[in-house]
Amino acid sequence: MTGGAQSPQDWPPRIVVCVGTVVLQDNRALLVRQARGHALAGRWSIPWGIVEPDETPEAAALRETSEEGGIKADIDGLLGIQNLPQRGWVGMIFLCHHVSGIPTPDGGAETDRAAYFSLEELTAIEEPIEEWCAWLVRRVLQGDYRTIPPKADNPFRPRLAFL
Q1: Residue 117: left (phi > 0), alpha (psi -120 to 50), or beta?
Q2: What is the pLDDT of residue 93?
């Protein structure tokens, strides 16, 4: 850097943060099918997308769930972080529970179907499922996961901390 120190707000972005949710309702997980024109067109996946400027990852995850799947959810905890195949992209995945709504796609902008699937239904589906999402959802539905719950006593309130 030249010309003095810059504040963090002036730093250029170095990574792209994507967020996704595994939303559970009665031992079933929400999946959305990606619409034509999307990189994953025709494949089922968890709801997810990119964190917008001035948006927290958890707010972005809940927004994407509502936009892509028509579901209002609450976050139970952080499932994990995944380095994504795209260079410089990282994914944060949250475990959520269903609050309200009926699975509804966004009308074809990004998704053309949305539904809850049990482990048995996931195994029997004949349509393609994005490989990583299928692996993740199977693990969650089998109980093979741990979450880091949000900590309300975080001194950066009202920001959530998953520590």
Answers
A1: beta
A2: 97
What phi, psi does 123 have (nearest 5°)? -65, -35
Domains of the chain: residue spans and CATH: 14-141 (3.90.79.10)
- Cβ 70 vs Cβ 113: under 8 Å: no
Can you give the pTM of this predicted structure?
Answer: 0.88
Continuous H helices in 26-158: 57-69, 119-124, 131-141
Token reading at 124: 């029997």
Closest CA to 116 of 60, 67, 79, 71: 71
Q: How far apart are the first and last CA of the chain?
A: 32
CA geometry: angle at 79 spanning 76 and 80, to 5°? Answer: 145
Q: Give the number of residues written for the chain.
A: 163
> Which is nearest to 31 in space by CA: 145, 131, 126, 133?
133
| 156 contacts: CB under 8 Å, gap ≥ 6 | none
User: Residue with structure tokens 């959520």?
Assistant: 96
Question: What would you report as the CA-atom Rg of the chain, rounded to the nearest whole angstrom?
Answer: 17
Q: Which residues in the chain come in under a pLDDT of 70?
A: 1-13
